[in-house]
Design goal:
globular, five-stranded antiparallel sheet, 276 residues, Jelly Rolls, single chain, 2 domains, eight-stranded antiparallel sheet
Length: 276
């Protein structure tokens, strides 16, 4: 009986053969079969997962212009929707330019060497909090103007300068023509946190009553008072000394300049404040 019982047991190995050439025992086959099926299922899923990741990436890349519910509740509005030039037009014209300004990957791009002209918002603003992201090419120049009125013959307003301070000739003409200045009138802080050309900067203009603030990458770099003796005296030392009312407050459009250098914008948003 003992000998019979011994013959009924399945051997776990065959003497004389390397282990890797021996047949697996019966109890091991189902486990290996299950593992193989799981591996095949995973391989089938991989293309679908890659497609989903690419789709998700494209959605987020195409929609950098967005507001949270809390931001909307606080009164923020997008000036650029990430898809079109809706809400913008040429100075003293009913429509946006057909060339020079394009939307690429959810960003507003000023094309290099393609004349499109300055563009202004269709709306006007008095007291406001304005924020935007921007980057400029090496040696480039651009600007954002506020207090723009079409009652003037040209698009003259207070300009937040955006320029390659060291790489553009205008930026080397003095602090009053560098990034975040009140262009040609007042200089920004000498310790402003400006990033290199090609990198994104975040800027802000805050107008409340007669006080104006320029911000750059989270730091307040300039404060001035509209109509004050100091500002009016600085205007008289600038190229705007013959412009009636320059340096005082008025309700006007926001303007992006066209200096034919390549510049990108995103997340342009504004919040109107109580006041004129």
């Amino acid at each position: 009986m003992r000998a019979h019982a011994g013959r009924s047991q399945l051997p776990t190995s065959r003497p004389g053969l390397p282990t890797m050439l021996q047949s697996p025992v019966a109890s091991d086959r189902p486990l290996r079969h299950t593992a193989a099926i799981d591996t095949m299922k995973t391989l089938r899923l991989l293309p679908s997962l890659v497609v989903l990741q690419l789709l998700a990436a494209s959605v987020f890349a195409a929609e950098p212009a967005a507001l949270t519910e809390a931001e909307r509740a606080a009164g923020w509005k997008l000036l650029f929707d990430g898809r079109s030039l809706a809400g913008w037009r040429s100075f003293k014209k009913p429509d946006a330019p057909k060339a020079g300004w394009v939307v690429e990957d959810g960003m507003l791009k000023k094309q290099k060497g393609v004349r499109g002209g300055d563009i202004i918002t269709t709306q006007t603003f008095g007291d406001f909090d304005l924020e935007w992201d921007w980057r400029i090419e090496a040696g480039g120049n651009n600007g954002l103007k506020y207090f723009i009125t079409e009652e003037r013959s040209s698009a003259i307003g207070h300009e937040y300068q955006m320029i390659d301070d060291e790489g553009h000739p205008d930026g080397r003409m003095g602090a009053k023509r560098t990034t975040a200045s009140f262009y040609d009138v007042l200089p920004p802080s000498a310790t402003k946190p400006l990033k290199k050309p090609g990198e994104w900067n975040h800027s802000r203009v805050l107008v409340q009553g007669n006080q104006v603030e320029h911000w750059l990458n989270g730091a307040k770099v300039l404060t001035y008072e509209l109509g004050s003796p100091a500002v009016l005296a600085a205007v008289q030392e600038s190229k705007f000394k013959t412009v009636p009312g320059f340096g005082t407050k008025l309700r006007g459009h926001i303007l992006l300049t066209d200096h034919q250098d390549e510049c990108w914008f995103r997340q342009l948003r504004i919040r109107e404040l109580n006041g004129r």
